[in-house]
Amino acid sequence: MRALPVPLRRRTAPPAHAPFAAHAIGAVAATAVHSPQDDFTARVAELSEQNFYACYQCGMCTAGCPFSFSPQQVIRHLQLGQVDKALALESVWSCPGCFTCTANCPKGVDPVRIMRALRSVSPDGHGLRRRAWLIANNHRFAGTGSRFAPVSNWLMGASAAGLAAHYAVGIHRARSLPPFARHPFPEWFRARSPIGDGHRGTVLLFHDTFMDYNHPDTGIAATELLELAGFRVELTDTVCCGRPMISKGFADQAREQARTNVERLSEQAAVGLFVVGCEPSCLLTFRSEYPELLRGTDLEKKAQIVAQQSLLLDEFLAPLAERGELELPFAANGPVLFHAHCQQKAFGTPSAGLALLRLAGYDAEIVNTACCGMAGAFGYEKEHYEQSREAGERDLFPMVRAHPEAQVVITGVSCRHQIEHFTGRPTRHLAQALRDAVVQKPAPRPHD
To answer: Are residues 114 and 207 in the same domain?
Structure first.
């Protein structure tokens, strides 16, 4: 199957990579007395692969932050060699990594990676380590929770469990955790009867932890949609993408996840198969994190190939629609509010999802907001609950409340739970909205 031309959104300027950072730091060090702080900032530049001297303090990152953090100030302290002041800022420790600041930077500097590197090299941990480990290793427990559903869901919903989570783990007592599905998605996939004959070739569906054990309906819809479009769907032989580990500072563990997935996907990616995913934060880890996690290793080139062949569902289907090659008879109607995931906005193409919804017949409008406020596990954490709510109240929640007649369509699982928690409105994944818009199954056709 030949590669599809996908016009991915890029940053407005080339990323400021480590060699430039090392040169800039060397120039500063040459005119000053060398100190341990110089070594520290050089290490941050190396790990983040960012040249924070390229930042000219325009403030666009801080102005756009949905959580009112100040990445600009963090970078300024590093430019001045004031490491202690940088580490003392809440922005370093509380940034949830929505990448809004990265998307806003006119110089291509990535504050998220800089702050993540700061956390990783700091001699002192910060925050609730138990909670961080549990969030980073959610994939270890999700299967067990699904196996014992609905009992596990009842236990999680009990008031005593909520209080225990609030005080012992740091999950806000008002939050309800994603319920477990009694029948995981892979179980449905193995038992299903495929639709169509797969005459357009094979795609690999990356099934993330939430798809498998919390929201199998997303995987079911994606599978049926791809099969209705003429593709043969195979599940990837993969482990957790590692995004939760990256966000909570477990870089070495995330690197092992990356190695495993790249080793298992590289052969198929090398012959042109696409890895298609539904959860932006997971799928985009393949694209934006794996090449960096595995740089300098024996898997560097393979990681780049996997990254090139990894697409979100709408990124995969939209080019076919643009060329008039999407074999799907759509007949939907009614208003839709489309909220794209923040990382999808920063590194992907949310316009692709909007275009597909309109092609399907929906009167679709994209919600113009940076982040829903959940940002992974950030909104679950008790000390960030109000910041999470305030971020959503900037634009997203008022927009949802102002259109009670519209379906709310999302791409991210964190967005799903944030919107439902604070507005009470049900949400549907983009894959579900598109699958349900198909009026009939295309007639089977012979293989070429």
So the answer is: no
